[in-house]
Amino acid sequence: MLDNSQTPPYSATYTFSPTTVSLQHLFSTNHFFGKYSMFIPLTKNTDTAWRMASELSTDTTKTSTSSDSSSATSKIQYPIHTNPLILQFTAVLHNDMDIIEVPSFYHRQWAPEYPEFVNFRYDGTIYQIRLRQHQAKVDFAEGLKEFRKDLSIFESVMIKFLACNNKSMFDLYFVPSLECQTCGRPKVMSRQHIWTVEITQSMLGAPGPLRLPNCAMTHVNACGQHMTILRRFEPPLQWNVVVVDGGVGRKYVVQPWYQFLADNDFSHGDEISFYYRTIDKIWEIVIRRRKNWDY
Question: Looking at beta carbons, which pairs linking 43-47 to residues 24 or more positions away fall under 8 Å?
């Protein structure tokens, strides 16, 4: 008797209507060895193989008989196998950028005719992303802002790009998972994304006070109506929060916001994300500047 774990290296494949299956797969299943104590060697003769497989699977398959045909066909149902996804490369989506640089070893396969768009597929949704070339670099560009917003990506994440034969369709795997985004700091320094402001041309031309959303009120109250805001490589900002329209009670940042816009040379499409560190009662900002592709 042949042990279940021992499977002869058969590679012959024959056609069983309505699908094509591998006899190696048929004879290596636990079901086969569980029901039959005698292993019958495979033969390269198609007729013999057909007869053997049909006889052995009589009690586990259905035989369909056509009224106008006297022949019986064993229907063996197996899952349809698609091309496997293969890891192509890994890249980082930084939380202060809306571009992802494509590794040179990968994008050279597209040369000299680079695709204008590629597709990212995640959780059943497909996102169309435009490719941009500059000198020897190729980036995933337009479409990433909407991609980030739709998936609520607020921290830097590593993305594994998987594909099969279609080099312009990528299945994505996030590390860490999007449910476990982290800034990579100890818990006492961890932060929470509160809201994001998108800079518009009207905001730059005739700036108004920065209205604080309702989701920020609890944190603003906790820090005494004063926002200490940390920035990368620059001194902290000190913003006082005031009530402009007393009847409604909405809270704003006025003069410090005007000064902040004037000092940072923003452009239409830039974004400012606000984060809150609960333990320290301190705010942080991350600025994402829209890249100008006019060249």
Answer: 44/12, 46/14
